[in-house]
Amino acid sequence: MDSSSNLQNNLDSKTLKKVNKKAKNNTAILLISHGSTLPYSEQVFTEICNKYKQVSGFDAEVGYMKVAKPSLPQAINNLIERNPNLTNIIAVPVFLAPGIHTKIDIPTILGLNPLEKDPRCPDGNYPEGHYLHDLESINFDGEITLLQPIGPDESLQIIINNRINDALSNSKLDKNSKTGILLVSHGSRLKYNKEFITEVHKQFNESTEYPNTFGFMELVEPDIPTSINKLLLNNTIDRLVVVPIFIAPGMHTTHDIPTILGLLENHHDHEHNHSHNHHHDLNKINFDGEVLYPEPIGSDDVLIDILKKKVENEL
Fold this sequence. Notes:
Number of helices: 9
Strand content: 5-15%
Strand order of the largest sheet: 2-1-3-4
CATH architecture of the largest domain: 3-Layer(aba) Sandwich
Number of domains: 2
Radius of gyration: 22 Å
CATH topology of the largest domain: Rossmann fold
Distance between the termini: 29 Å
Structural class: alpha/beta
């Protein structure tokens, strides 16, 4: 490479650094979570936010769509209080798959146009008591850019394989035992969640020798017992690693899925404001081998890197 090329590269690098510095002076990041009545989610998202700020250099705040605090408008107020010169907020839904929350609820709460018509309320007039009724105002005159959720990023495979290896390190069986893998997703009435986990499973299946499949906790087929029984029918398996493809621990990962797997006693079905429960009318799981159930994604460094790259691609 000649001296003129080296000089140009140095100039480009200096220009990029100046642009990034200017962007960080007037741009902040809003990390968006669903919110949970349990404390686990808030703990995880506090860790995600702290790690993200450290590696990115941006100021950031977690805002919750509902249930937990701060709300999205309150989180924006916190960012503005720390930096009155703020002109840009990049809103990052820390959700794995698109759905009603990312396409309708979050844009509406942020004062943006929803990305599709709400099947729950097509006219957009939400009844009293609905969390989209009588929303808090967004007191920000700058630009809010809403990014897409994480999606089937190939880096998620690193986390999945790490969770499997962690689980196997705690196995009571020897290394020659036959292992099967089940990836578990939440499920949604919309198509997006199934598209997401189908692609994640495809990536995983292409890179592993373990017999494997995926299943849903609720709302869509195949459910967890059906997926496990089919996997057992077609393979000899001594132990099963069930990997929850969820961001943070919550009622679903600490109660619902373990109960379906028979790891917890089902004293009563957990019901909540989705107007359904998760454990009744499910098939029995016909497996008497070892079940290993690792933690969800949490504040894994790989996730932080995915979020960092999503924001950098927007700048």
